[in-house]
Amino acid sequence: MNQTTNAPAPKAGAKQWWGLAVLVTPSTLLFMMLTILFLAAPNMAADLNPSSTQLLWILDIYGFVMAGFLVAMGVLGDRIGKRLLMIIGAILFAGVSIAASLTTSAELMITWRAILGLAAAMMIPATLGLIFVLFADAKQRGVAIGVWAGGISAGVALGPLLSGVLLEGFGWQATFLVAVPIMALVVIGAPLLLPEHKDPNAKIDLFSALLLVGGLLAIIYGVKRFAAQEPAGPSIGLLVAGALVGLWFVIRQLRAEKPLLDVRLFANRTVSGALAVFLLSAAALGGVYSIFTQYLQQVQELSPLQAGLSILPAAAVLIVVSTLSPVFARRFRPGNVIAIGLLTQVVGYILFTQLDAGTGLALVIASFVITYPGVAPSMALTTDLVVSSVPPEKAGGASGLATTANDLGISLGVAVIGSVGIAAYRNQIGGLLPDGLPADAAAAASDSVDGAMATAAELPGALGEQLISAAQEAFTGGLNTAAIVSASIAVLAAIIAATRLRHVRPTGEAQQADESADTTTS
């Protein structure tokens, strides 16, 4: 029996673990920014006076730009240095956050949120890449990646709660300013605690990144135009243009010697199945989540802090289920674990379809507690499923795909399902408006629930109360309709998980098989 002795990988010390804190803290914040404005939307709308479509852009443009540039910025970090790019991204994020907090224009706010997405894309790949540099020992590296992934999940889950706390004491501007001290920590701590790492031979394909973002935004803009009931011709043109740009992107990747995004990975059924499930489940949740947070404030008439605390039980259960999902996956097939979670989510969506303006808060909270944690198994298991199913040299690209699917899914849900909710609101509000309402008030109320509430405050008592009741009923109808769409998407995702991933064995069995093979070969 031949034996080879390999020197053990050096163990990480205190400096490396402190360095991990410098990487995880901004990662948590950057993904928190996907959801932190959900509760702030009514307050922001009162100050910026955006249309309902503009408000959706403010909420979702950050995630689209971050998703579109994640892979490209990962390559740029390899070229100029991961630590350097992360510091540049932190400085840009802090500066733009200050600018956004001072903004009084809806159009300018959309621009700032887009630039924040670009800055986030500079930082996220560097945080994960530097973990591999910091931790040479496989076991320690696994713990570090788990902490990083947990931080991201916590950020998405707790964004609205932090928003509620900030809104109670300050204003929506604080949801941007909270980023400044975190980015200062990165700028100061990164040079002290993190090594630099670069690959001078890395080549960045910026044009492919622009194609990816351009195709996504064209399709989403077309969907939003349909929701706004604007002329169909330009909307269809945008959808076709976006699809063609997307096709151009795929062809370019297939022809490239070193593609920006290795689309051939999708030929692997585990990769394509897991990413499809993750994208769909995140989209189903993201759309309902954004509408639900507004429902708590506009219909249940909770303060931002009360709304944030109402979400806390579901967020706590989400974190618990995320922790337990890998444990279940050791004994049961991961595809089945994910499917059961999604079917549980469907039950929650069905409960959402039964909510009305007079539903008690306890039932509202219970509905979300059932719905929210259902996404946890796909969130917790997808990255490992994707990365473990490809050769080691493709693990970086596969990990990037999983991260992209997360924020892209949430943003797609806000855009598409949010647009469905807006369309349902507009279809219902016309028949509910009280008689004697001035034309300009009717127009404002017909555009959005925020417009209705602002208008109602300026009307005489009885007429204002009637308008509020009409807007609350129509908005709840929009939530009911959005929940039906999300339930359908979650059912599709559960079917894909149960069928497309049924070949994936429990991770405990796979590990035992690997150990057995190692024993045999040695």
TrEMBL record:
Keywords annotated in UniProt: Cell membrane, Membrane, Transmembrane, Transmembrane helix, Transport
Gene Ontology CC entries for this record: plasma membrane
Molecular function GO terms recorded: transmembrane transporter activity
Residue ranges of the TM segments: 20-42, 54-77, 84-102, 114-136, 143-162, 174-194, 206-223, 235-251, 271-292, 304-324, 336-355, 361-387, 408-425, 479-498
Domain Major facilitator superfamily (MFS) profile: 19-505
Main location: membrane
Membrane topology classification: Multi-pass membrane protein
Localization per Swiss-Prot or TrEMBL: Cell membrane
PANTHER family with a match to the protein in the record: MAJOR FACILITATOR SUPERFAMILY MULTIDRUG TRANSPORTER MFSC, METHYL VIOLOGEN RESISTANCE PROTEIN SMVA
Protein name: MFS transporter
